[in-house]
Amino acid sequence: MTEPNGRPSDDGQTSRENGAAVEQTRPSVPEPPGGDALLEVRGLSVVFDGFRAIDGIDLTVRHGELRFLIGPNGAGKTTLVDVITGLTRPATGSVRFEGHDLVGRREHEIVRMGVGRTFQTSVVFEQLTVVENLDLAASFRRPLWSLARRRRGVSDAVAAAMETTGLDALAERPAGVLSHGQRQWLEIGMLIAQGPRLLLLDEPVAGMSADERSRTGELLTLIAKDHTVVVIEHDMEFLRRYASQVTVLHEGRILMEGSVEQVRADPRVQEVYLGRARDAEAAEGSADVGPPVTTRAAGAGEDAVVGSAGEAK
C-alpha cells in the first residue's frame, strides 16, 4: 500500500495526512430475512457448578442483521456472548462462524477471524487520545516491530472509524475526559477499526442520556449496513426503535424469536418482563410502609414478625 504521495506507509496501510413461571418450549428458529448464516449456534449448554446458565440454545444470525438479545438478568445473554468469543467453554454444543467452529479457539484467534465485542463497562486507554486509541486497535493485525515506528498520518481504517462514530472533532482529546456516551462510541469505533464482520455489543446504551441513546441507535443502524451486529439490551423502548430481529432468552433458553412487534405481543414475554415489574413494584410498596419488627409474642415459642401497622405476618 502507498501514501497519496506515492511513498509506502510504515504500517502497510493507506495513510492520509489529515485527519415469573413461564412455559418454555424450544421454538422453531425462524429464518431471518436475507443472506446466508454468519453465526450458527447449535445445542449449546453451559454449566457452572451444576447450574445451567445456558440450556440447549439454537441460534442463527445471518449476514447484515441487526439482532437484539433481550431477557431479564440471569437469562444467559452475556454467557452466550462469552462462549462465542472464547471466554467461556460450553459443556455441549457448537458455535460456527462462517462455517468455522469457534469452540476451543483462543480469544485472540476469534478476534482475528472477524468477531469483535464490547463489554458492559467500556474499555479504553484514558491517557491516550481518541485517535491513538483507534490507531492502537487498528494495529492488532500488524507485526510487532511496526508498532515501534513513528506513524505518518491517519490510516483509512482509523479515519473511517472516527467518521462513523462522529468523533472526528475529538480526535486529539484524551479518552479520559470523554463523556460516558462518547467513551462507548470510541470503544465501538475501536472495534470497527479492526475490521470485524460480526460485532457483539453488551448493553451499549446503559447509563446514557436520552440524546446519547438516540445517537447510539443511529450509530448501530449505520454500522449494520456494512456489518452484522448483535446487541444485548434491556431497554424495551430502545429495542422498539432500532431492532429488526429479536431473540428473547429466559433462564438459559430461547423463549421466542421474531420481529419487535411479535415479541412485544407475545404473552410469555409480557409475563417475563411485566411479571417481574409487578414483583418489583410490590417489593417497593412493602418497603414504603417501613421495615417489619421482630418481637417475642407472649406464650409463643417463636418470634412473630410484625409490620409497621402492627399486623402479624
| Beginning-to-end CA distance, first to last residue | 76 Å
Q: In percent terms, what proportion of residues is strand?
A: 15-25%
Which class best fits the helix and strand makeup? alpha/beta
Strand order of the largest sheet: 7-9-10-4-11-12
Q: Provide the succession of SSEs.
A: EEEEHEEHEHEHHEHEHEEHHEE
Based on Cα principal axes, name the global outline: globular
Uncertain ranges? 1-35, 144-148, 289-313
Care to describe what's here?
This protein has 313 residues and is an alpha/beta fold. Helix content is 31%, strand content 24%. It has nine helices and 14 strands. The strands form four sheets. It has a six-stranded mixed beta sheet, sandwiched between helices. The chain has a four-stranded antiparallel beta sheet with strand order 3-2-5-6, covered by helices on one side. It is globular.
Features:
single chain, 313 residues, alpha/beta, 6-stranded mixed beta sheet, 4-stranded antiparallel beta sheet, 9 helices, 14 strands, 24% strand, disordered N terminus, disordered C terminus
